[in-house]
Design a protein that fits this description.
Blueprint (H helix, E strand, L loop, with lengths): L1 H18 L6 E8 L5 E9 L4 E10 L4 E15 L2 E14 L1 E15 L4 E14 L5 E12 L1
Antiparallel strand pairs: 1-2, 1-8, 2-3, 3-4, 4-5, 5-6, 6-7, 7-8
């Protein structure tokens, strides 16, 4: 039984280590969204380990009329070659007439070019928690980031 558990544990560790993707130490760029009205954000990513990162976005949403700030913790997984996919969760604050707080998730795909450029497409569902925000909002975006 101990040999079976050891073998199973070894296989799981090997599977996760081959799926782990080293992310760049830092990346900064622009994220253009089109969920509930057009928007744009300055986006910064910082590595927190071999395959985890923190993403912070500051910008304008809803036809560029509302200030928005979002923080996300993300897990990055290798797909094929220079393609990765990622998933994460976090929260944010928005000034839409009155200030509101929301919870957010993210799932997306990205491509690392040979030059220090990262392009990604993601979907971010946002759930209003307070401040007059209620319901679920969808945020789909294209991002271009410089990696350093």
């Amino acid at each position: 039984m101990k040999k079976l558990l050891f073998t199973l544990g070894f296989v799981l560790v090997a599977a996760f280590s081959t799926n782990a993707q080293d992310v760049s130490s830092n990346a900064i760029g622009l994220r253009f969204s089109g969920g509930n009205g057009l928007g744009g954000e300055v986006s910064y990513q910082a590595a927190l380990g071999g395959s985890n990162r923190l993403e912070v976005n500051l910008g304008l949403a809803n036809e560029f009329s509302d200030f928005k700030a979002t923080g996300l913790y993300e897990w990055v997984f290798a797909l094929d070659g220079k393609f990765n996919w990622y998933v994460g969760a976090g929260a944010g604050i928005i000034s839409a007439g009155e200030t509101g707080i929301y919870g957010a998730g993210v799932i997306g795909i990205e491509y690392n070019f040979d030059i220090p450029l990262l392009i990604s497409i993601d979907y971010r569902p946002e759930i209003g928690i307070s401040g007059g925000l209620s319901g679920i909002y969808s945020d789909v975006a294209l991002a271009l980031r410089y990696q350093f």
